[in-house]
Sequence to fold (369 residues):
Amino acid sequence: MMRIIYDNDIFLRQKYGGIRLYFTSLIAELANYPVSIHPNPSRIRSIYPRSTLSNSLSHLLRVTRSFGRGLRLPSEELLIYHPTYYSDPFLSSCNLPFVVTIHDLIHEKYSEFFESCYPRQRLKSYVAAKLSCMVNATAIIAVSQATADDIIDFYPFIDSSKLFVIPHGSDHLSSFSIAPSQLSPSLEAISRDPFFLFVGSRLNYKGFHILLRSFMEVCKDSPFLRLICVGVPFSSEENMAISDLGLSANVAYYSALNSELPYLYSASLGFVYPSFCEGFGLPILEALSFSCPVICSDIPPFREVGGDLPFYYPPHNPRQLSTLLRHIAIHSSSIRKSQCLSSVSRSRQYCWSDTAKLTFQLYSSILSL
Fold:
């Protein structure tokens, strides 16, 4: 039997997030194949944030124990190592065939977006660790063709023959009801008025400040519109920016459960994704799966994922974003109806079972060499 060794890294780094979702969904679907998974992520307790020395040492110890247990196996078993992130201490000396998944090259291509968030040395170390993974990996998974193109363009010396495009799935919300039996009081309160939806982190490259400026212009004519932001609570700087723009009554934060996202996508006027750069665009597919109109920046990964269904605008252009927000606010219902079948069909092209199937085939091809 094939045994796949995953470290604990991303499960210790993230309580939520796209990379954790990727590995959780992939491992769950691989249960349908003749593989043995180590460790079992469902038994891993998240530690977040790891900001202290004790937490960092704890992380290293857990990864060490996990990896060590994974190697205490009969010699006839077929082993593949698939690190969940780029900082595992065993990667530089790993003698097993290993596969690394590259989710984006944002830090390499757009380092200016992170200069205010990370010390320069930390950013350099992160980029160097990712590059080391790609150079030494037996195979590289890129989550989109756009990300694969970025890898080839940015690192032309990497062997392109070991690069494979395996997209994310988008059906992880399909088991939840669009209309929950009971809304939380806070969600019920903030969703009474018509609202646009923003989902995910709001780091500099996400374009949230552009969205606020655009939304302010729309609210001048439609003062009862809301923008619901799903993710972490607003920072003091964000609260100040929202207040300075006169949007305190219009912009709300909500920590949504996965089970509440179908309602939010279904009840919103539209989903807005103003990112300047991404590696995939999973929330676009989530929105389309519930026939939610999508407004997003015109960048290659979004075109690849969304096709001709989203309403695109040039990044860094708040005026055109405002125009689209006004258009969707007026025509949301008719757009939902006209795009319904196409939106659902598009989202169904991306499922986690296909991600697992292609990944298993890649594992098998490596072991057959």
User: Anything to note?
Assistant: The first strand starts at residue 2 and ends at 5. The domain at 2-169+351-367 is CATH 3.40.50.2000 (Rossmann fold).
